[in-house]
From TrEMBL:
This is Glyoxalase family protein. Residues 7-132, 153-271 form the VOC domain. Signal peptide: none annotated. The lineage of its organism: Bacteria, Pseudomonadati, Pseudomonadota, Alphaproteobacteria, Rhodobacterales. It comes from Roseovarius nanhaiticus. InterPro entries: Extradiol_RC_dioxygenase, Glyas_Bleomycin-R_OHBP_Dase, Glyas_Fos-R_dOase_dom, VOC_core. Pfam families: Glyoxalase.
Amino acid sequence: MLTQIKGLHHVTSMAADAQENNDFFTKLLGMRRVKKTVNFDAPDVYHLYYGDEGGTPGSVMTYFPFPHIAKGRRGTGEVSETAFAVPVGTLDYWRERLAAAGVEGLETAEQFGEARLRFHGPDGDAFALVEAPGDTRAPFGDRPVPADEGIRGFRGVTMRLREADATAQLLTFMGYREIAREGALIRMALEDGNGADVIDLEALPDEGRAREGAGSVHHVAFAVENREAQAEVRRALTEAGAHVTPVIDRDYFWAIYFRTPGGVLFEIATNEPGFDRDEDPAHLGEALKLPDQHAHLRARLERALPELVD
């Protein structure tokens, strides 16, 4: 069993409109845009990162906003819900705030004894705010959401699968353990993690497969401290039969990827070097940052990419 994984690092999804996406996370949910860069494989598309003050691993939601992308179709083989942790007693505040903004899909529920407020993002993304007792992580600033109500980071994700056992075994190998079952849900948790340390697996054998598009999670990333720990994880996963990519430099972390038995794309990302490697911490996410291989395209990209109004 691996011990290097510390919880989630980030979750990456797809959207249709960059400005709408930016406004939803910064102006409504009160998260900080910590990086404005481009997709490594499609530099004419933004890669936007939102998180806490410094983009701490376990707090970062990222997006590829592809103009004119078709909406995704819900099904199995995907992350079906991304949950953020908020302080106990704040769901009434959030329900009122989201309802006033016309957010769709508002629904109060309970999952494994935790109160949660479900809602949809601009592209039909499935989110939840979960009251997480004992979560001492700090939110971003004190505006537009007061710090006492602010998002602390991820609580975890739910994965919708045709069959959950193989993915549960993989997560067990990665250091998680099953702590509860509730209907079709299996809760896997990581002890002594970074706060973003819960994975719920939902088995739906008769459900069709998901189709990726706007509102879909592209991949979920798990955090390791450094490249040494990542190398150990990669070696162990490869020896266990996973088809793991070589290490890829993503500027703000190093990444490896592999597809799970249930079809979800996993990434293992390092906590180093972080989002302040090329920007002052007071000005994260303000300037357009380009990977070295795309630096020569700056003039064209600055003309082509839609301007983001903060």
